[in-house]
Amino acid sequence: MKKIHWKNFFICGLLCFAVLAIISTIFSYLSSNLYLATPNIWRDWNYFWLAATIFYYLFFAFTFSFLYALLYNGLPGQGAKGGIIFGFLVFLLVGFRGFLINYCSTILPLGLISMWAFAWLVNLTVMGAICGLIYKPKK
To answer: Which residues of 51-88 are buried (b: 16+ CB within 10 A; e: fewer)?
Structure first.
């Protein structure tokens, strides 16, 4: 088993954080009309929400990168292809599950839930590709 290359892990984590923030912001903008269709169920925007979102994105990006580094030797494929597969597998565990539970248990519009699921699929596969291109373990 090769040791984790901490510098590469850190770079992957930072880039995954940036991608997660940018893609999520784009999808939020694209789905804004879906949020406006259900104004009574959302809390008012505030700076706590912004800080919590940034913290969550940092935590998720670095956890994703750490899992990629930890599982590197067992991934099906190398480089961007292996990373995309990893991102898709994480989506199946996290994103699809969230989509299904939200659809079955809330009154949120199907279009909004579908947009969230698609956004997670895009985020996770792009983050996987980044990790696949950048992360290499120590020799």
So the answer is: eeeeeebbebbbebbeebbeebeebeeeebebbbbbbe
On the 0-12 / 13-18 / 19+ scale of CB atoms within 10 A, 37 is exposed
The number of angstroms, rounded, from the C-alpha of 21 to the middle of its chain's C-alpha atoms is: 9
For residue 86, the one-letter residue type is F
Q: The whole model's pTM is what? A: 0.91
* Residues comprising the chain, all counted: 139
Distance CA 27, CA 133 (A): 24
75 close to 82: Cβ distance less than 8 angstroms: yes
State pLDDT tens for residues 71-109.
998 888 889 999 999 999 999 998 888 889 989 998 888
Non-local (6+) Cβ contacts of 52 within 8 A are none
Q: What stretches of 3-109 show up as alpha helix (H) in DSSP? A: 6-30, 32-36, 47-70, 79-90, 96-105
